């Protein structure tokens, strides 16, 4: 199928061209005609499938007809990063349409948002909490809404946003088009879908299986050897842009610092960074200032970094869904990507659960020249023991990425940057040397 056959308004078609999209992705091919027809849609699609444009394009098309200067489309998303990303898609795809959009989320001043809303916008992309603030203050009028989108509904549920969403729904006209997107469909989402959607059409791609372009591997290792193994992996793998996941904010921060000390352009992204620092880390990762971003699941939600070549699970995620969500960041929209997961003996059950969901066993690999026999340090250091569950406790002084940005060279070329302590610099594409081997008898 070609975009041409979807008969978009010429100004929307110009946006598709500006974005460089040639063919609709499978979710777009399924969803766009249905949304254009005006049906409610339940979209089962994970990030990386092109789901954003699947709702943005038909919304822009719809808004080309009818009034301007009041809110006609509302997209609710779980995180500010995702909200920004959706807004960027709207700006790119709607560049010729004259339609205006605004993002609405907490952690930044409310007044600029109020000013934009006052000047008149047709599209609002919002996180639930701040949107309710605007509703409470009377600074947003949603009474003439045409379309509502609930994006990443499963994440919104996980983050405890459903009560707020139900409050928001009370301020929306009953007669509207509603689109709900979710990577997974647990009972709670089904219930919400039943409440908000009327006679929906379900569109679905890759419900559980991650993008086929991603190759997965497990690296069995003892807890205290994870960091040296990561350094070794980075040195001997052809990586462009690596997203590393840790279980806790503290581990993300510490690992980011360790990687930086080893000569990598690395930053960490944790839930309690200020919005400016989060944005600096994300922008730096996107523009290549940082090659490696270390993040927790919550902090990484909504990250769209199309060029992510590798996802490394430094700590295995808590659920198979989280695994699929994490690796959704690599192999996006038909690019190829690798997903490495470090596993210890304690991760056996989760490995089995992930393999069940993927429908096949994951390949076990080991590195040839890596010394797996190094004993754990006597001292009970952070990285020598399994991570604790994330806590809500705030640490005084905040946690930073600004330092790493300031000291990071722009692009680390061969021969530049600090030599690595036990790691060295990332190998260039041509210097890929030892390929990791299969490790058939790992016990995991
Ligand atoms: P999403 O799943 O919406 O986060 O999109 C994943 C990535 O795919 C984004 O970087 C989009 O810009 C890109 N993308 C979306 N639709 C297409 C398309 N039809 N052709 C090529 N890339 C696309």
Descriptive report:
It is a single chain. Strand 3, helix 5 and strand 4 form a beta-alpha-beta unit. The chain has 444 residues and is of the alpha/beta class. The C terminus is likely disordered. Helix 3 packs across helix 4. An eight-stranded mixed sheet has the order 10-11-9-12-13-8-14-15, with helices on both faces. A seven-stranded parallel sheet has the order 3-4-2-5-6-1-7, with helices on both faces. Bound molecules: adenosine monophosphate. Adenosine monophosphate binds next to helix 3.
What is the CATH topology assignment of the largest domain?
A: Rossmann fold
Question: How are the strands of the biggest sheet laid out side by side?
Answer: 10-11-9-12-13-8-14-15
Provide the low-confidence segments as ranges: 390-444
> End-to-end distance, in Å?
43 Å
Task: Based on Cα principal axes, name the global outline.
Answer: elongated
The whole-number mean of residue pLDDT values reads 81
Number of spatially distinct domains? 2
Q: Portion of residues in helices?
A: 25-40%
The ligands found in this model are: adenosine monophosphate
> How many individual helices?
16
Going by CATH, the architecture of the largest domain would be 3-Layer(aba) Sandwich
- Which value, in Å, is the CA radius of gyration? 22 Å
Q: How would you classify the helix and strand content by structural class?
A: alpha/beta
The CATH class designation of the largest domain is Alpha Beta
Tell me about the biggest sheet? Answer: 8 strands, mixed
The beta-strand count equals 15
**CATH level-4 homologous superfamily of the largest domain:** P-loop containing nucleotide triphosphate hydrolases
* Beta content: 5-15%
């Amino acid at each position: 199928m070609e975009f041409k056959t979807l008969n978009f308004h010429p100004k929307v078609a110009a946006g598709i061209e500006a974005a460089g999209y040639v063919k609709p992705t499978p979710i777009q091919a399924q969803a766009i005609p249905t949304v254009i027809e005006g049906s409610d849609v339940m979209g089962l699609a994970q990030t990386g499938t092109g789901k954003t444009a699947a709702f943005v394009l038909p919304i822009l098309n719809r808004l080309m007809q009818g009034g301007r200067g009041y809110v006609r489309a509302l997209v609710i998303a779980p995180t500010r990063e995702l909200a920004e990303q959706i807004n960027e898609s709207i700006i790119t795809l709607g560049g010729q349409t004259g339609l205006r959009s605004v993002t609405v989320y907490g952690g930044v001043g409310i007044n600029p948002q109020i000013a934009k809303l006052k000047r008149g916008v047709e599209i609002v992309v919002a996180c639930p909490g701040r949107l309710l603030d605007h509703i409470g203050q009377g600074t947003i009028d949603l009474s003439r809404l045409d379309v509502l989108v609930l994006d990443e509904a499963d994440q919104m549920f996980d983050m405890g946003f459903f009560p707020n969403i139900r409050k928001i729904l009370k301020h929306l006209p009953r007669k509207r088009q509603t689109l709900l997107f979710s990577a997974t469909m647990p009972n709670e989402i089904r219930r919400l879908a039943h409440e908000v959607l009327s006679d929906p059409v379900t569109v679905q791609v890759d419900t559980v299986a991650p993008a086929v372009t991603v190759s997965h591997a497990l690296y069995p290792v003892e807890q205290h050897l994870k960091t040296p193994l990561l350094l070794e992996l980075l040195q001997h793998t052809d990586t462009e842009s690596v997203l590393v996941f840790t279980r806790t904010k503290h581990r993300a921060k510490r690992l980011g610092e360790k990687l930086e000390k080893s000569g990598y352009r690395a930053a960490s992204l944790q839930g309690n960074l200020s919005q400016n620092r989060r944005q600096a880390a994300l922008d730096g990762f996107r523009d290549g200032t940082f090659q490696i971003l270390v993040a927790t699941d919550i902090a990484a939600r909504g990250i769209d970094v199309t060029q992510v070549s590798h996802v490394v699970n430094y700590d295995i995620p808590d659920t198979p869904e989280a695994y699929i969500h994490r690796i959704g960041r690599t192999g996006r929209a038909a690019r190829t990507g690798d997903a490495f997961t470090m596993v210890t003996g304690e991760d056996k059950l989760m490995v089995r659960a992930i393999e069940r969901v993927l429908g096949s066993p994951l390949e076990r690999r080991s590195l040839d020249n890596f010394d797996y026999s190094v004993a754990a340090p006597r001292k009970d250091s952070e990285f020598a023991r399994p991570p604790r569950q994330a806590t809500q406790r705030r640490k005084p002084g905040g946690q930073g990425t600004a330092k790493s940005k300031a000291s990071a060279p722009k692009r680390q070329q061969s021969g530049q940057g600090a030599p690595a302590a036990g790691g060295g610099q990332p190998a260039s594409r041509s210097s890929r040397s030892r390929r990791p081997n299969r490790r058939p008898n790992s016990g995991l």
